[in-house]
Automatic annotation (TrEMBL):
Biased composition (Basic and acidic residues): 698-707
Biased composition (Basic residues): 744-755
Species name: Nocardia mexicana
InterPro entries: P-loop_NTPase, T4SS_component
SUPFAM superfamilies: P-loop containing nucleoside triphosphate hydrolases
PANTHER family (UniProt xref): SLR6007 PROTEIN, UNCHARACTERIZED PROTEIN YJGR-RELATED
Region annotation Disordered: where it falls in the sequence: 686-716, 730-755
The protein's name: Type IV secretion system coupling TraD/TrwB family protein
Length: 755
């Protein structure tokens, strides 16, 4: 088995080296002929050897040349054949044990198959007759070049015998078809070509069968007046071709025949066709395998391993590119979760903070690959945990990014927009007014909590101190709402007005919801993700929480994260720590308090990169889909449905919908940004799971990571519930002191005491 790196050293400029060629499909005839004409017209006439080698894996195309010309040959092919690829390290060239020379029966006949594509298919089918370790080779050695020339005025008869020439003299050629054939041959660029076929198999009978089958297939190019004949040859001429620096002795050594470029083309077995054709030994047409640009080989975040022929390198982009957002789309079971986990692992290894929200098992999977350096920085916010990590969305905590805190009006407005995003017009004008003013008042409380929201609406004793503070802060707006309207309502009027709002507020009182969103003294603030480089992992399971509660919690958490991102607006760009945000099943969880288009555009400038994953386009609201198309500049496509494939293929000529619909699992077609420039589509295979590396040191125990998170950031659920009960009981005691009767509405009690 001989490879370039196994040739006898040292290699000199005249040493014959081999390169492998991958042709595009379709491979138009005009382009293929252009390559051969280029070689035939080169003044220095380099030695070129074309091979089609078959094994059970398929047919490989090789080209041999002197080392001094190897780069020129590669450049010629890749420039003249768009989409072609040439590798300087081809596969093994196994030796053949039997060889035959194939030559035309006539020196003037013109080889012209009746159906060129069918002939190519027959030749490739014969090459693919091998089994096991057998090999079959078709070799063309392109020798001395032939320039186009006109027919001679007096053309001698091409079939006149020597005896006839002696006895009768040279007779002129009178056959029109012979003149036409010779005119085609002489009128083109051409070569002196030696065609050989060789085989290697276990037995002589098998070798003979393979050779005869290939010879018969080559016979499909026969034309009127010319056919191909077999002659004995030395296998060593295939196995170890000699380097030739001169063509002076070529006719004597190689016994080549003059072939026009078009004749030689049909003997190469190249997959030439103006349309997409399925050829034996060439694999499927789809998905196309596209080589990455050099820029995609230098990024720090690895997306995939390139699978294009001859492209043994990684596909990657930088954090800056990722901040232009990544759209991950593919049907279920194609490898999206493992792909996202790989990116998260890379972020952790680089020390970048991560925020991840998802409904299935991505978080659990990611917790199996936490680097040692990040194990104490992972915050697992799981509402089902008995030691839930909580956040207080009403807490106006001062941070380096937000030294003055957030005004209660802004806090209230941010929370109001969460409700409006979820419920839209169903929230109603009056309910929205009540909600906004109630949130403003609660934000002024000491250790505020969302659990206070239903209390401020239904409990006057609890409400009045908060209303007093609200009026003191804003005597115009707050007095007008509370004193001039709400406090004048009868108990029945209060209930009638808050009833439409109650069913939207009530989910916050759910056991799992309040354990996270209503903690009055949480040990974690979501701004620590940005300020301290923490990673926030949020598993939300709609099957247990319920879809509505899962979406509500996701909306609150995403809103808080978004607010924290926006608070960095005054921080110098060079001081911003990049944040990678991952949202799986994005149609369920991406509810931001601003338009998504604006959010993605703003996030880019604040160094927050969103990775948005889902299964198909019709899952998304039209506005969300449009935002992805316009603002997610990085696209990672797994296997797609027909409609999504058509949408991705629209507006380009490189890929077709079939390329997207035929992707196997873990295979991707990606279009990435590099240095603010959109790179061409490229293909690859996502990185294998870290478990397959065999390096147990790269694995972590999810239970250990959760335990660390609980110890640092969680609180026992019983303790959190006790705080809620303490608040309720304190309010009840205060109410009892005022009314003398527990649980009775103050206004109604006062009316009963009136005479």
């Amino acid at each position: 088995m001989v490879r370039n790196d196994q040739l006898e050293l040292p290699l000199g400029p005249d040493s014959v080296v081999w390169q492998q060629i991958w042709f595009p499909r379709p491979f138009p005839e005009a382009i293929a002929l252009g390559v051969l004409r280029q070689w035939a017209s080169e003044a220095h006439a380099p030695q070129l050897i074309l091979e089609a080698r078959s094994s059970t894996k398929g047919v490989d195309y090789l080209i041999g040349s002197q080392l001094r010309y190897a780069k020129t040959v590669q450049r010629t092919i890749e420039h003249l054949v768009p989409g072609s690829q040439v590798s300087q390290q081809p596969g093994d060239r196994g030796p053949v044990s039997i060889a035959r020379r194939v030559q035309p029966s006539s020196r003037v006949g013109y080889i012209e198959p009746e159906d060129a594509v069918a002939s190519t298919r027959s030749i490739l089918l014969a090459l693919m007759a091998v089994s096991g370790s057998e090999q079959l080779v078709l070799q063309l050695e392109l020798g001395a070049r032939r320039r186009p020339q006109a027919l001679p005025v007096e053309l001698p008869h091409q079939q006149q015998s020597v005896l006839s020439k002696v006895l009768e003299g040279i007779q002129p050629e009178t056959r029109t078809e012979v003149k036409q054939a010779l005119g085609k041959k002489l009128g083109q660029h051409g070569f002196e070509v030696t065609v050989r076929i060789g085989a290697d198999a276990a037995t002589s009978d098998r070798r003979r069968i393979l050779l005869l089958s290939l010879a018969s297939a080559l016979g499909t190019v026969n034309a009127v007046g010319v056919h191909l004949e077999l002659r004995a040859d030395d296998p060593r001429r295939i196995n170890t071709p000699r380097s030739r620096s001169s063509w002076a002795l070529w006719p004597l050594v190689a016994r080549g025949r003059h072939l026009a470029a078009s004749e030689a083309l049909w003997l190469t077995a190249w997959p030439v066709s103006d349309r997409e054709e399925i050829f034996p030994g060439q694999g499927s047409l789809h998905p196309r395998k596209l080589r990455p640009t050099p820029a995609l080989s230098t990024g720090e975040r690895i997306v995939a391993q390139a699978n294009a022929p001859g492209a043994d390198r990684l596909i990657a982009y930088d954090t800056t590119d990722a901040c232009q957002h990544t759209w991950i789309i593919g049907r279920t079971g194609v490898g999206k979760t493992e792909f996202i986990r790989s990116l998260i692992r890379q972020d952790w290894e680089a020390g970048r903070p991560v925020a991840c929200i998802e409904p299935k098992d991505l978080v659990e999977s990611a917790l199996r690959c936490v680097p040692d350096s990040q194990k104490d920085n992972i915050v697992v916010l799981d509402p089902l945990d008995d030691f839930p990590v909580g956040i207080n969305v009403l807490d106006r905590l001062q941070t380096p990014d937000n030294p003055s805190g957030t005004p209660p009006e802004i806090v209230a407005d941010q929370l109001y927009h969460i409700f409006h995003t979820l419920y839209g017009n169903a929230l109603g004008y009056r309910s929205g007014d009540i909600l906004r003013e109630s949130l403003k008042a609660i934000a002024l409380a000491e250790n505020p909590s969302l659990i206070m929201l239903p209390m401020i609406l239904t409990n006057p004793t609890f409400r009045r101190p908060l209303v007093k503070r609200a009026i003191e802060r804003d005597p115009v707006a707050s007095r007008n709402f509370w004193m001039d309207w709400f406090e004048k309502l009868s108990p029945e009027g209060v209930m009638n007005h808050i009833a439409p709002l109650s069913n939207k507020v009530r989910p916050f009182l759910d056991r799992y919801m309040r354990g996270v969103l209503a903690q009055r003294h949480p040990r974690f603030n979501i701004r620590q993700v940005l300020a301290e480089g923490k990673s926030l992992m949020i598993p939300l399971q709609p099957g247990i929480l319920g879809p509505e509660r899962a979406q509500l919690m996701a909306a609150v958490l995403m809103s808080e994260l978004w607010n924290a991102i926006q608070e960095r607006a005054n921080t110098p760009a060079h001081q911003l720590r990049p944040l990678m945000v991952y949202v799986d099943e994005v149609e369920m969880f991406l509810n931001l308090p601003v338009k998504l288009d604006d959010a993605l555009a703003t996030a880019r400038s604040l160094k927050a990169g969103f990775h948005l994953a889902h299964q198909y386009g019709t899952q998304l609201p039209p506005t969300m889909l449009k935002a992805f198309q316009n603002n997610a500049r990085n696209k990672v496509c797994f296997n797609l449905g027909v409609d999504d494939a058509k949408a991705m293929a629209a507006g380009q000529t490189v890929l077709t919908p079939e390329d997207f619909t035929s992707l196997p699992a873990h295979h991707v077609l990606v279009q990435l940004m590099r240095q603010n420039s959109v790179q061409p589509w490229t293909s690859g295979i996502t990185l294998p799971p870290i478990e397959e590396s065999g390096d147990s040191t790269k694995l972590s125990d999810p239970d250990d990571i959760r335990a660390r998170s609980r110890a640092r950031y969680g609180r026992p659920r019983a303790e959190v519930e006790a705080e809620f009960m303490e608040l309720l009981e304190a309010t009840a005691r205060a109410k009892e002191r005022q009314t003398g009767h527990p649980g009775v509405h103050g206004r109604r009690h006062q009316r009963r005491r009136q005479p």
